[in-house]
Amino acid sequence: MMTHRLIGILLIVLISISTGFSQSYTLEQFIQLVEKNSKDLQMAQKELEMADAQYKEALSTALPKIFAEGTYNRNLAKMFLFVDFPDSETGEMTSQKFQISYNNDFRAMAMIQQTLFSLQIGDALRAASQYEKLTDYVYDYSHQTIITIAKKGFYRALLLKKIWDVKEAAEKNARENYENVKKKFENGLVSEFEMLQAEVNWKNKIPETSQAKRNYKMGMIMLKTFAGIELETALVLEGNLDSYPAVPDSLGLETVLKQRADYNALLWERNLRKTNVSAQKSEFYPFLTGHFVYNFTSSSDKFDFDRRNSAYFVGVKLNIPIYTGGYTGAQVQKARIDLDRTDIKVLQSQDEVFRCIKNIRLRLREAYSRILSADKTRESAFRAFAIAETSADNGMATQLELADSRVQLELAVLNFYVATYDYLDAYYDWQLAIGQVSGVESMAKKMEEED
Fold first, then answer.
1. Is the entire prediction scored with pTM above 0.85?
2. CATH number of the domain within which 298 lies
């Protein structure tokens, strides 16, 4: 008995391994998994890191720069200096030579450079700070969009599972009905025509079930890929389409615009464009830099620092742009055009947001009305099918009437779940449209709190 028990346990383990591990997720757990594994969020995170790097780059223009270098030369031939001197006795000019090179030359130099005056530094720092806030809002919107897609995908998978369950139950019911009618036919209680009707009705359900199963499997593959789950993993979603949130209250356009991360990103883009105009204008103005230099030289026939010299000096350098061939003026003009384009984009965004929230409100109301209607229809369809089933068993209803009642029940059930999903789809679009995606912490808000 112990041997049989061990074999049974081993078979269970092998079956579980071959079929893959099953993992169950609620909506909240699934969202956390998406946040952890989403490639799009990882790309958005890199944009945040890039903004931080650009701010450090802009800050570097205001900080001092220190350079140091050293060189060594090995002279392969002697070098001489030839000088003509008058002879002290004869007065004639005679040429004399002096050695001016040695085998080894050493040189070292260190310099500290600091910008003393430049309008470009202030513009660069301001632009870097604005770009950092811009990317924070872009990340917020990317985050909200991905979470919205995750929620809609989660409930879409639940809908596909419901459709498969309904189709499977309808096929099973039709098969049981066919087997029951077949027994009655064999006992001479019903005609062959009624038996064939029941058989055709059952077999027509089989491809519908197969298609619903395929759609569900494909939906789960997409969901696993989106969340970074292994495709071999048996994924179980804990949720239902029997409940739904209340219709949200309407909000004013100004309130929505303040909450929209993408709109706020556009406003920061406009600020960045303004700064760019100022930055391009600053090219017309001079800039001043100061420097301190230490220079060391040494020459020797040995590897030694003989005949050394050290020099220290400070200085300033003033660069005054006088004429650039119209290049700077052209850059200012391009920057102003970019600013005008962004202003137009802001106005377009306002119109788009207004249109979007109006359309979503219509979708919400329409889907909510369909839910209420489909719920009542579903209850009536259940009662009608129960009556038709009892009547068919008693010979008071034909198989065609029973099949039609079953089709109506299927449609009523599916219409309720489809209406619920459509409502949830519009509801999550509404949250995204007003900038209040639940379960998502705003990076921009967090940044402001930290400040």
1. no
2. 2.20.200
